[in-house]
């Protein structure tokens, strides 16, 4: 299987995350609120029989209370048919085999158990992608991988039946945040452990003229009247059940 993500680099990125910074981040807290609302809607708000798959267990422990946690490696340390619900929290977009992840989660559910996943979708950081594209073409005459490619809600929803999950539902929210500079956005991505960890990423430091051009393009195309630049984060929620 072709490796899109360098898992060793991703682990290093996550190890540098400051828990207090992450705990106060409005984006991740919005996702946690949405997950809690969905659990309540489906009558699973008590947290019993739940396991959380993620790359940031301390954050989710704070939000959901003490829970069983499993690291989102390509092979999940899950016991078959042992959980009433499996949550996959803000990590599936980093998987080299998302269908395999969903299958492992389904097998860990008891019959009738519920899977709920949250991940970044294809509209995430579209402004940054467009600005990078224009800046690199202008400076280098070509492009290189800078932002992780992500799937849209329909494509991700199609993964649920492929993984054997029934009554699948895929829905989305979009969160737009504003920053004074591109550097401010990149600092937040670093604080979240969400900077570039693609296997074929550029590994040499970016040229100053390219980043200066990136800042210029971003502001020209997207800045609001106050001079702030927006960044869109699309969050996709996947819900499905194991057959009884």
State the gist of this model:
The protein has 244 residues and is an alpha/beta fold.
- What is the count of DSSP helices, taking H or I runs of 4+ residues? 9
- How far is it from the N-terminal to the C-terminal residue, by CA? 32 Å
Strand order of the largest sheet: 2-1-3-4-6-5
Whole-angstrom Rg: 19 Å
**Which class of secondary structure composition applies to the elements?**
alpha/beta
Which shape, going by the Cα principal axes? elongated
Oligomeric composition of the shown chains: single chain
Mean model confidence by pLDDT? 91
Which range best describes the helical content: under 10%, 10-25%, 25-40%, 40-55%, 55-70% or over 70%? 40-55%
The helix/strand series, from N terminus to C terminus, equals HHHEHEEHEHHEHHE
How many β-strand stretches?
A: 6
Low-confidence stretches: none
Strand content: 15-25%
Query: Biggest sheet, open or closed, and with what strands and sense?
Result: 6 strands, mixed
């Amino acid at each position: 299987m072709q490796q899109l993500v360098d898992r060793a680099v991703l682990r290093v990125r996550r190890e540098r995350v400051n828990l207090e910074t992450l705990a106060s981040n409005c984006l991740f807290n919005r996702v946690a609120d949405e997950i809690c609302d969905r659990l309540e809607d489906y009558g699973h708000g008590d947290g019993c029989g739940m396991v959380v798959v993620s790359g940031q267990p301390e954050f989710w422990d704070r939000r959901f209370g003490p829970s069983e946690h499993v690291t989102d490696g390509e092979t999940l340390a899950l016991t078959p048919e042992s959980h009433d619900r499996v949550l996959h929290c803000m990590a599936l977009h980093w998987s080299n085999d998302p269908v395999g992840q969903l299958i492992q989660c389904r097998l860990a559910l008891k019959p009738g158990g519920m899977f709920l996943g949250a991940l970044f979708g294809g509209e995430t950081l579209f402004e940054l992608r467009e600005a990078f594209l224009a800046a690199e073409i202008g400076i280098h005459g070509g492009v290189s991988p800078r932002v992780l490619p992500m799937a849209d809600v329909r494509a991700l929803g199609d993964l649920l039946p492929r993984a054997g999950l029934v009554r699948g539902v895929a829905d989305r929210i979009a969160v737009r945040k504003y920053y004074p500079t591109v550097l401010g956005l990149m600092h937040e991505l670093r604080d979240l452990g969400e900077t570039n960890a693609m296997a074929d990423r550029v590994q040499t430091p970016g040229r100053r003229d390219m980043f200066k051009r990136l800042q210029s393009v971003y502001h020209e195309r997207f800045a609001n009247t106050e001079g702030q630049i927006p960044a869109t984060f699309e969050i996709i929620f996947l819900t499905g059940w194991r057959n009884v």
